Amino acid sequence: MLQPLRSLALTCLLAASLPSAAVDASALKPPAGAKVAIVMFADLECPECAHAYPLIWNAASAHKIPVVLHDFPLPRHNWGFEAAVWARYFDQTSTDLGNAFRKFIYANQSQITRESLQQWVQKFGDDNKAPVTLPNDPDGRLAEQVKSDFALGQRIGIEHSLTLWVVSNSGVSQPLVEEIKDRAQLDQLIEDMLKKAQSASTKNIKGAAPKKSLAKNTRKAG
Fold first, then answer.
1. How far apart, in Å, do the first and last CA atoms of the chain sit?
2. Range in 8-17, 156-165, 206-215 with the lowest mean pLDDT
């Protein structure tokens, strides 16, 4: 994993040189079928991310919206990239297992080192009856997925490993960067975006052609 970390170092420095005004999250959208979602760029070695992770999932559950996770491991964190690849490894079994691994790593983050990461991965695998095989990414496909997420963060203009938005198909919230002070802060963003999404949906319905007119036109065409 040393080579991916080195290759990320230069790209991270380029991202850090972007002014905050360059941040443009307009490309971020909720998954198909969802009106609103939380989109989080995170690093498994980031303490702020560890604090935010359970708050994010609790808020998402309360509002019944999905969470979209993107990897943004910073080169100064010497095991974050490798941990992200392991998360992708468990995602292959199920996204629930991958997210459980992320939660496990965040919960034990303060005890993990680069040297002990593999032991924590094995413990998670044993506790969840999930096989842990080495090499975990023989063709480099999982590492490429992590780097692709990082590149997306660069294009948006992200500078911090904890950056999140609440997004809808009609817009994005103001970003929360570096820390989430409490659940209420996130709840307010979600509620605001849900209202905006509902308003946009209502306008679209009002602007649509009446069904009877459409049916009549169809018959004429036939």
1. 63
2. 8-17
Which of 143, 111, 142, 105 lies closest to 124, judged by CA? 105
H helices of 20-116, in order, are 47-63, 80-91, 95-107
**DSSP letter assigned to residue 102:** H
Residue pair 68/98 in contact by the 8 Å Cβ criterion: no
What pLDDT, on a 0 to 100 scale, did the predictor assign at position 13? 33
**Of 34, 109, 110, nearest in space to 67 by CA:** 34
Given a contact cutoff of 8 angstroms between Cβ atoms, the answer to whether 190 and 36 are in contact is: yes
Helices (H), the chain: 2-16, 47-63, 80-91, 95-107, 117-127, 141-156, 183-207, 211-221
Closest CA to 97 of 128, 137, 75, 72: 128
Predicted model pTM: 0.79
- CA separation for the pair 6, 10 (Å, rounded): 7
| pLDDT (mean) for 53-81 | 96
Number of H helices, E strands in the chain: 8, 5
Q: Encode pLDDT of 44-57 as tens digits.
A: 999 999 999 999 99
